[in-house]
Amino acid sequence: MPHKTLLACLLLTCALAAQAAPPKPQQAAVATAHPAATVAGLETLAHGGNAFDAAVAIAAALAVAEPYGSGLGGGGFFLLREAGDQPTYRFVDARERAPLAAGPDLYRRDGTVQRELSLNGPLAAAIPGLPAALAHLAERYGKLPLTDSLTPAIRLARDGVGIDRVYRERAEWRLKALEQDPTSAAIFLDQGRIPDEHGLLRQPALARTLERLARDGHAGFYDGETARLLVDGVQTAGGIWSARDLRDYRVVERQPLRVNLADGRELISAPPPSAGGVALAQSLLMLERLNWRQAGAVQRSHYVIESLRRAYRDRGLLGDPDQVRNPLTQLLDAQHLQRLAGGIELQRATPSASLPPMPAWREGDHTTHFTVLDAEGNAVAATLSINLPFGAAFTVPDTGVLLNNEMDDFAADPRGSNAYGLTGSQANAIAPGKRPLSSMSPTFIESEKELASFGTPGGSRIPSMVLLAILDYLDGKPVSQWPATPRYHHQYLPDVVEYEADAFSPGQLSGLELRGHKLKRVERRYGNQQVLLWRKDSGQVEAASDPRGVGRSALWK
Q: What pLDDT sits at residue 207?
């Protein structure tokens, strides 16, 4: 073959290969709810880790720096994107499980459910899933050993992390419960008082627990010394954990919820035991049928509220997919969604009482969320929780592990109401080894042109917050505005629209009231969203943290 022909073939081959190569971001990005966690993620990326290693480092650092929002004693959901010619999506379910000794009458005394038992103390705690998730991500997807990824968190626990305004606020809310547990009071309070801002939170026992996890992986928490200390401490204080509960715990990899949207975009979100992904999908698909983009401000808000009303009504059918049949096909069926959208009147609110009845529920509002994208295009969106601020306010002695109170996310009384006074649901009733339903909704929206990532803490308000951020994205608004956008919320029951002070103008409030909406202004701004956007054509990456919190977003090259 002549040299010129050979050269032309080689150039053509290289050009075709370049066209076929998947796009890559120009930079990596991290957005978390705490500056120390953002630094941990950046440090891990700088040491050669990928997005999954960074997710391990960030989640562990948040467990140290935000004990009011997540921790080794809690769990969460991880949505993964593996880069490649065709990206692969995975959903790691690290939701807590009910102890094997738990049952539907766990909190019933003399025929009545005792609310306090599912809120405070070891009986309120489900079996944690976060440590298993950290080991799973490192072993299955990471490039670095777990010891490297956990180093920043171990350092934070040993040397201390600064007390900020959010810590002090959350501790104030849970002060009485923290005071009741001597170990928690010794760690998280200062001689029984809320610590001063800029003081240091040191957790040496937690550092030792993290070191065992780093050294031995899954077995370093769910077996051996840590497991023995956890079971002994819980049982001594009146809980029902067993060694088998810990030994049997495993994360579950599930298929993410994937739904095609308009304009070639795809929603990739959380499947059950999250109810949030389904609510997001239903709301977006209803809004597409309602031509929301062409609507004025009042009409658009009306459409959003009515879509949320119907999506939240449906979620009472959902539960742990390992124990309950979830009718996802029916809930996302085009005819069902058309009926829901068709039932929305243009100028009048639909009273929730006029819709077919369905159980409603609520969960703790104070979780945490982060997102990370590496230079190869791998990405993680993760929402973590211990339920209420500081969870069950019970720390197992000699471990530093503050336990969740996720058992309250079950319908403690399916025949009546849960601890929030809302109607129960048999699909979400307590059962041995069951995972409670959750609103946590780590979410991607991807197309040939872009990848966007969304997520926030906020309990039952999570789907509505993520929806509003997605609508800002679809409207082409700046990335910085997505987490900052003023929020409003409807969850079917109670039949009221909660809204932040700046969500509506006086004219918009009047317009919504004329349509029959019951409005309630919330005094405290809520949520703490972390987002990012990768424009594939240019490689440009942007990230943003919610101005309501103390989080930080950063790029790294």
A: 98
